């Protein structure tokens, strides 16, 4: 199935996994809107993506804090106003605050839950009617941390365990409404997440363009079939 002239909206598409997804979709001729909490960063990323990909797909940069429901509704309206429809919503924006529970601040707990979980709830509430009109796709980016807990991960685990369950429940709510819903759960990805500096030591990890390819394949799959939860991990470990 061709994705040309489809329309996608990616929260947090200015870096990391969201950036890789935007590149892959633009290459397929999809019109893509990406967001950041900083409009300048979103605009810089949009220019880099457009310059790096030969495609007819357009790209638009928008400012968005996913913790603000009214702002999510506004940016969805802007996407529909510009391109006339919304086919794909990719809820990618996320944060990571890691600390033992004795040291985890209430502010970091709230920021993690509000961004990684409540922000996705706001996303589907803001986009559900637009997605019904196109029989579109709502995709969340969870994590293997959504089924595997680890020390120091109380806030992040809680947000991603919640996101995985939330997405699966929403999938059941909307599957007969013409909207497909799925989640991708990556393991170690070579991105700047949590201020990590990417270098040659990260070559063993999943690359952001790999997630982009998975998303393209998922969106191209015949609508009668839905991979509702996709776990992705590096083929080898760091010592492999």
Automatic annotation (TrEMBL):
Which Pfam family, just one, is annotated for this protein? adh_short
The record's section on PROSITE patterns has:
ADH_SHORT
What Gene3D superfamilies would the database entry show?
A: NAD(P)-binding Rossmann-like Domain
User: From its record, what is one biological process in GO terms?
Assistant: monocarboxylic acid metabolic process
Where would I find the Ketoreductase domain in this sequence? 6-193
Protein family: Belongs to the short-chain dehydrogenases/reductases (SDR) family.
What name does this protein carry?
Short-chain dehydrogenase/reductase SDR
**In which organism is this protein found?**
Cyclobacterium marinum (strain ATCC 25205 / DSM 745 / LMG 13164 / NCIMB 1802)
């Amino acid at each position: 199935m061709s994705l040309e002239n489809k329309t996608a909206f990616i929260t947090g598409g200015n870096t990391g996994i969201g950036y890789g997804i935007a590149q892959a979709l633009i290459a397929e001729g999809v019109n893509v809107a990406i967001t950041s909490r900083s409009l300048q960063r979103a605009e810089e990323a949009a220019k880099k993506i457009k310059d790096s990909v030969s495609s007819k797909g357009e790209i638009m940069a928008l400012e968005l804090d996913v913790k603000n429901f009214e702002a999510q509704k506004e940016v969805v309206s802007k996407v529909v106003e510009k391109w006339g429809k919304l086919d794909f919503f990719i809820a990618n924006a996320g944060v990571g605050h890691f600390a033992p529970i004795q040291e985890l601040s209430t502010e970091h707990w709230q920021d993690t839950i509000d961004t990684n979980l409540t922000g996705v709830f706001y996303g589907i509430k803001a986009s559900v009617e637009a997605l019904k009109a196109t029989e579109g796709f709502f995709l969340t980016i969870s994590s293997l941390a959504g089924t595997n807990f680890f020390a120091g991960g109380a806030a992040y685990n809680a947000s991603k365990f919640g996101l995985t369950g939330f997405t699966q429940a929403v999938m059941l709510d909307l599957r007969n409404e013409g909207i497909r819903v799925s989640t991708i759960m990556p393991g170690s990805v070579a991105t700047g997440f949590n201020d990590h500096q990417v270098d040659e030591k990260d070559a063993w990890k999943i690359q952001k363009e790999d997630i982009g390819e998975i998303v393209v394949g998922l969106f191209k799959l015949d609508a009668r079939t839905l991979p509702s939860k996709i776990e992705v991990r590096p083929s080898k470990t760091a010592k492999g």
